[in-house]
């Protein structure tokens, strides 16, 4: 049998887990992979747990878990890649295979899937969507109420003609046609989907996983183009908040406290915002100028822990704060029984923007305090100061009407903007959330080398690694440098030379010569966009 297997020609890492939680290495993974005959028609394989409900071996029967109803629970596949364009390419390829009818869904942001006119044109789509769902100002989302029309795989495939792998734009078009929200439809389809496509950050970002209700425990995670996930993981575990956002949240929490609405829960959260604002103000004068109209001061994660300790936020008190935050998000509360019957009443809650801000803050604090501050050294905390131009505050008369003298335009003023940043420097911080929970992690890429350092960066030991030969032969590649152009001028690409017309003309003539010589087109890389202008 020829060595053909499902891994193709790329580099793959695979972390296999067993029920005991210990990482094991398969005795001969390539032997198992290569035992599948390449001539065998597509269909259910006979060696894995998906072939029958019970499985064909003792090993497979032990792999399949049961849900609370006693039915066999087969793991879902979460396929993550960098962009939505790459997801479109993957689903297009899936459509060409024998598995094109496998139940699937694609997760994306409201930017790609929301079809409500009031939300599409709004800058803060997430907040506007949540306001409509809460029914504020007497408005609601009629698209959301139509989700049931296409929210199960059977209806989608049988009655809507989407029986093969589809793209997110097809779901959006169908949502517009049936007045059904594509964003929430895609989320509802997860329940019966065997494979879920999404960008990296949906799997790595704790906030997105929570908002999407993604439970990766005992699931299969495949990350394509994995050489990009380190930056994504660092960004997912980082957080930034402006002083303006903190002040807005403080004022809103202050209003809740003054109106005696869940005072015991809102008051500690207000104290957190007040402490951070006071700390920002106290350190604003010590910022060091870096660039034009930009200043910054940086602390280590352990230094920030000492600051938080002075604010009363410690390893012991943080779980209590988390409990208060969970309580203020509840839209209903139980009231004293009337005639022996317990009832619930609606309670005002903080705005969507304040909820999002506090969720991000609590996420990064959780990382800082987790496992005896294990990840504290992986963080840098910075206060940055920049400037922005804003309209001068308008003045109203005693009747509340805007006072604007004739022939006078609104003046603009330069305002200092302070941002509190929690920068995560280690991708293993975010990756630790999914490592150990999932059943299998598969990383694929053509450029993961060196694999040891890559594994170390993520904090994961991959027991199965495959590094295949490149599809292009050495005889098909020529690598060299060109010191001069067609006219004999030296191509010394220093900053001074690249600014001259002579150098630019020589490079242009060289490119023209190559284009005339090489058939089927060329691909040209430049160090920066500036060289094109």
Automatic annotation (TrEMBL):
GO molecular function, one term: DNA binding
InterPro entries per the UniProt record, alphabetical: DinG/Rad3-like, Helic_SF1/SF2_ATP-bd_DinG/Rad3, Helicase-like_DEXD_c2, P-loop_NTPase, RAD3-like_helicase_DEAD
Domain Helicase ATP-binding positions: 1-273
Pfam family, one: DEAD_2
Keyword tags: ATP-binding, Hydrolase, Nucleotide-binding
Keyword Nucleotide-binding: yes
PANTHER family with a match to the protein in the record: DNA REPAIR DEAD HELICASE RAD3/XP-D SUBFAMILY MEMBER (PTHR11472), FANCONI ANEMIA GROUP J PROTEIN (PTHR11472:SF47)
Name of this protein: BRCA1 interacting DNA helicase 1
Lineage of the species this protein comes from: Eukaryota, Metazoa, Chordata, Craniata, Vertebrata
Gene coding for it: BRIP1
């Amino acid at each position: 049998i020829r060595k053909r297997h499902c891994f193709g020609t790329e580099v793959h890492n695979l972390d296999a887990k067993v029920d005991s939680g210990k990482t094991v290495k398969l005795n001969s993974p390539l032997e198992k992979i290569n035992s599948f005959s390449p001539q065998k028609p597509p269909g259910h394989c006979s060696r894995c747990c998906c072939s029958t409900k019970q499985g064909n071996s003792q090993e497979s029967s032990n792999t399949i878990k049961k849900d609370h109803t006693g039915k066999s629970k087969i793991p879902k596949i979460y396929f993550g890649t960098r962009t939505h364009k790459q997801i479109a390419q993957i689903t297009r390829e899936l459509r060409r295979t024998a598995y094109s009818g496998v139940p699937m869904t694609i997760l994306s942001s409201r930017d790609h899937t929301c079809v409500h006119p009031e939300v599409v044109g709004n800058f803060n789509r997430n907040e506007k969507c949540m306001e409509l769902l809460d029914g504020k100002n007497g408005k609601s989302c009629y698209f959301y109420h139509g989700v049931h029309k296409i929210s199960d795989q059977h209806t989608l495939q049988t009655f809507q003609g989407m029986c093969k792998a589809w793209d997110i734009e097809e779901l959006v078009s169908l949502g517009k046609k049936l007045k059904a929200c594509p964003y929430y439809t895609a989320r509802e389809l997860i329940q019966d989907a065997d494979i879920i496509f999404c960008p990296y950050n949906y799997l790595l970002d704790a906030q997105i996983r929570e908002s999407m209700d993604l439970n990766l425990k005992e699931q299969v995670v495949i990350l394509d183009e994995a050489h990009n996930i380190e930056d994504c993981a660092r960004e997912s575990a980082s957080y930034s908040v402006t002083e303006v956002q903190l002040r807005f949240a403080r004022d809103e929490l202050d209003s809740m406290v003054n109106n005696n609405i869940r005072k015991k829960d809102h008051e500690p959260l207000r104290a957190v915002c007040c402490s951070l604002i006071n700390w920002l103000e106290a350190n604003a004068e010590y910022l060091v100028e870096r660039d034009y109209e930009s200043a910054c001061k940086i602390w280590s994660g352990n230094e920030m822990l000492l600051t938080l300790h002075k604010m009363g936020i410690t390893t012991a008190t943080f779980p209590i704060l988390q409990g208060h935050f969970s309580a203020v998000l509840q839209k209903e509360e139980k009231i004293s029984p009337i005639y022996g019957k317990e009832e619930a009443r609606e309670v005002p809650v903080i705005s969507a923007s304040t909820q999002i801000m506090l969720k991000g803050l609590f996420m990064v604090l959780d990382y800082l305090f987790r496992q005896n501050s294990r990840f504290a050294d992986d963080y840098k905390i910075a206060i940055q100061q920049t400037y922005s131009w804003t309209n001068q505050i308008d003045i109203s008369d005693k009747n509340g009407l805007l006072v604007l003298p004739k022939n006078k335009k609104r003046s603009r003023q330069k305002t200092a903007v302070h941002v509190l940043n929690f920068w995560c420097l280690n991708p293993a911080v975010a990756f630790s959330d999914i490592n150990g929970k999932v059943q299998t992690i598969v990383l694929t890429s053509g450029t993961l080398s060196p694999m040891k350092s890559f594994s170390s960066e993520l904090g994961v030991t991959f027991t199965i690694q495959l590094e295949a030969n490149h599809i292009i032969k050495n005889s098909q590649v020529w690598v060299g440098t060109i010191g001069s152009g067609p006219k004999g001028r030296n191509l010394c690409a220093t900053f001074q030379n690249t600014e001259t017309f002579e150098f630019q003309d020589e490079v242009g003539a060289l490119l023209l010569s190559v284009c005339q010589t090489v058939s089927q087109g060329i691909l040209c890389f430049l160090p920066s966009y500036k060289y094109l202008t």
